[in-house]
Predict the 3D structure of the following.
Amino acid sequence: MTERIILLCLLCFLAVLVIVFRRLNRRLQAEVDERKKTEQELVASEERLRTLINAMPDIVCFKDAEGRWLEANDFDLKLFQLEGVDYRGKKDSELAAFSSFYREAFSGCEVTDELAWNKGTLSRADEVIPCPDGSYKTFDIIKVPTFDTQGNRKGLIVMGRDVTERVRVEKKREEDQRFLQTMLDSISDMIFYKDTDSTYLGCNQAYASRYIGLGKEQIIGRKDIDIAPDRNQAALYRASDLCAIEAGTSYTLEIELTLANGEKGLVEVQKTPFRNADGQVAGVIGVARDITERKRAEQELRASREAAVAASRAKSEFLANMSHEIRTPMNGVIGMAHLLGTTELSPEQEQYLENIENSANSLITLIGDILDLSRIEAGRMLLENVDFSLRRCIQELLGSQQFQINQKKISIHTEIAEDVPDLLRGDQLRTRQILLNLLGNAIKFTEHGGVTITAQLVTSEENRVLIHLAVSDTGIGMPPDLLERIFAPFEQADNSTTRRYGGSGLGLAICRRLAELMGGRIWAESGAEGGSTFHVELPFLLPEQTDRQQERNCEQADDVYQDRPLELLLAEDNLVSAQFVHKVLSRMGHQVTVVGDGRQALDCLADRSFDCILMDIQMPVMGGDAAVRIIREQENQRGGHIPIIALTAHAMDEERERLLRQGFDAHVAKPVDIALLNAALRRLL
Ligand code: ADP
């Protein structure tokens, strides 16, 4: 029984043992499986790491504490041609012994490794490494030393990235910058650039030394308020920086600067915004140019110009005065000669008289020409804009030259094209002056044959017309080389011209200047067999009224005036001049009352009415200016308007303008040209 019990107990114990054993066995099996799995994962992870390291386009290399190569990635092996070489366990110096390439590639590595060890942490430097193809590449080499817990050297990880391109770009940028800076420094203008806060980013040598008086490196990163010699201007500089920055365009200002040496200088500063890669304004570039000298030169130029203008004005005034001084006695000579001509004279006396008249007329013409030329050259010839009849103007011209034409027994033709509008708006006096000169020359230089005046319409646009006028003759003609020269002052065909035909050589010079002043042109043609043609093209406006209507008005006015004897009041203190004008106008059938000053003219006007007053300007007791002012004031109260023509020796345009402003209606220069006086009367009455 006991044995059975013991056997049973043994069996139970065995069963428990088996169970425990099985369990233990299962757990063990699980642990073995776990470890196997971990090992497999470790292998896989290592495999992945290795693949990764090998796939990297960088140098990766592991060395032990003594600097022996443990492992290197594919890139490293390929770069140093270590594939197939038993490099593991070798030091750099041992590898260097293999070949000259290795010697060059690995020399110095142990030194830099040692530096990394000594530093104890990551060290980094650009190293130039030779390549098998003979080229060199720059690598950014990182060395990471590792230590065990006791601080003993464990291993060294070496990594390197090819930065050859980056280094090349940086080098290029550095070169470009150096080039740019050299260029900026070679410019004498002061140049600076700032960011949007007006902090200096850079400047050139001129700016640093001439203005700020510091080195460039002391300027960069600072503001005007810290470094500008005239700090009180810093706010102005900032404001002008902002003008350019905010507007996004250049801003220019003139500033008086205190330079580094304490001198004052006037500069013109142009501030131009510059932009970053995103197109945003990133700052401002300033170029300051010293304009002290330029300003001084400008001032001198202005002063000399003013002096020249004053001299020219003085010359014109001198000419005007001289012309006045010469014209007044000449007026007497011409007037008296004219009156003498109406008395009984012997043939010999008549000849003398003719000589006196010719000489006096030449002198008056010469004075007029010189005065005209000086006025045009001084830019003081003002053009007038009046409506006039071109046909009548030509007829009057022919009328004024009739005597000479008859004397020379030459024929005169006029051919005015039908489409030439008769009423034009422009400077009638200057047009007449040009034509008179050309006609006078044509008659003067023609002994046989005749003279033809033609007028044609060249263009017509809205209210503007271009008229071509030509004066042709069958006279002596001109050689081709003279055709242009004759338009220069004092130019004549040759010296014999003056002796034979007279003249000063000024007429055509004046014609050309007048034509150009009017916006037109003048030129000459001459045939081989003699004869000349002078062409003038002049622009005119067309009057606003319908042409026919105005033409009719004009004709009617003309008729009325021509039919009607006028009641004229002549105020003139110069007896000779008064006698002459009185005589000529009386002979034309007009009733002329002569008084000696403005006061008498006013008295006369109080008693009687007149069609027109001819008023001298400089008179004793009361001059023409004062008299006209009183007459116009009286008219303001009572109404009415009597035409008043000023008779003056001052032929200047300014004088004419002044007289018109004073209240005169027209102006005729003395000695009185009866044709001009008639034209003025016709226009006013
Ligand atoms: P002036 O006739 O007073 O000498 P101009 O300037 O009018 O001055 O003319 C300059 C020169 O041009 C004349 O001296 C003459 O030699 C030449 N000339 C002008 N018109 C004619 C012409 N119709 N025929 C020939 N020569 C002329």
About this structure: The CA atoms of residues 461 and 541 lie 10 Å apart. The pocket of adenosine-5'-diphosphate is lined by residues 437, 441-442, 445, 473, 475-478, 486, 491-493, 497, 503-509, 532 (CB under 6 Å). The first strand starts at residue 59 and ends at 64. Residues 2-55 form the longest helix (54 residues).
